[in-house]
Write a structure and sequence with these properties.
about 325 residues, mainly alpha, 3 domains, 12 helices, globular
Length: about 325
């Protein structure tokens, strides 16, 4: 009887043992998978959290992220027309008729844009001269004009060398070393510190003298496809420095002197970068990591998203 019971127990054991072992094995596997999943999820959360902190600390500002009114846009168009007019005169006097004609066509296109703008909003009831004169006394509007002109410099530089992507779009910097640079470290990383000679000769035309010790990534491998756009980028870079020094800086707060000096330095860096045909990455770094955030900070420029949100409320 005892032997029969033992056989019965063995049969039951043999019948259920595989199932029990399989259940234990499955539970162990599921526990391991759950642990791995938890670790993986935590890694993702940590990475996203770190990226969010870094992005907000070093968040770049796009000029097209600023809320720009029609009057500031009008002044920007006038500044562009002035630059193209300079180039028409220069090329005409040097018997470069093809270049003069190209810039004359640019003037015609910009004039059409200006006429369209005058038909919109408050600009329709005022003359161009009146609006332009009023905006010269408004530091916020002039800061927006500077931001717009800097963006236009990037566009012209990009088309001049047929870069193939939008230099005004900060997302095109993602994945490069520049994206991880802070505002304070960028100038050091690019070795673009102004020498005393340049600081003391801000009105001098001898730009190279002040940057004699600068090391910059040159754009040697990219051929120049559109000389007319490069000419426009150069003149705009000269004019935006003049606009800042003559008109915007005198309207700025004395308490912001350090940031104003930094902004002036960065605008000069941009001008020199255009002259020596620096890499597009260097130009984007100067504009997106340096110039735009400083403009927004010093002149309290409204960002487009915040204005849209307020209007919806």
């Amino acid at each position: 009887m005892r032997f029969d019971n033992l056989l019965l127990c063995l049969k039951i054991w043999n019948l259920y043992l595989p199932r029990v072992l399989l259940t234990i094995f499955i539970n162990l596997i599921m526990d391991q998978i759950a642990t791995v999943c938890r670790i993986f999820v935590m890694l993702i959360i940590t990475t996203l959290f770190s990226y969010t902190i870094i992005y907000h600390i070093y968040q770049p500002i796009y000029a097209h992220d600023f809320f720009v009114n029609n009057d500031a846009t009008l002044v920007t168009l006038v500044e562009q027309i002035k630059a193209e007019t300079q180039l028409v005169n220069t090329n005409f006097l040097s018997d470069n008729n093809s270049s003069a004609q190209a810039h004359a066509r640019n003037i015609a296109g910009l004039t059409n844009d200006l006429e369209d703008l005058l038909k919109e909003g408050s600009s329709a009831s005022s003359s161009i001269a009146q609006i332009y004169d009023n905006e010269q006394r408004n530091s916020t509007s002039l800061a927006l004009v500077v931001a717009n002109m800097v963006d236009e410099i990037l566009r012209k530089y990009g088309t001049a060398f047929d870069i193939g992507y939008d230099l005004t779009n900060m997302s095109n910097m993602v994945g490069s070393d520049m994206f991880s640079m802070s505002e304070d470290s960028t100038s050091h990383a690019m070795d673009m510190t102004l020498t005393p000679a340049y600081r003391d000769s801000s009105n001098s035309n001898d730009t190279s003298r002040g940057y004699s010790n600068m090391s910059m990534r040159m754009n040697k491998d990219l051929p120049l496809y559109r000389i007319y756009d490069y000419e426009t980028a150069k003149v705009l870079s000269e004019n935006v420095n003049r606009l800042f020094g003559d008109n915007l800086r005198p309207l700025s707060l004395v308490s912001e002197t350090d940031n104003i000096d930094k902004l002036e330095n960065n605008l000069r860096q941009l001008k020199y970068s255009i002259e020596v045909k620096a890499s597009p990455e260097d130009l984007m770094n100067i504009v997106h990591v340096q110039i735009h955030p400083t403009l927004q900070k010093v002149y309290d420029l409204d960002l487009l998203d915040s204005v849209v949100t307020e209007s919806q409320d």
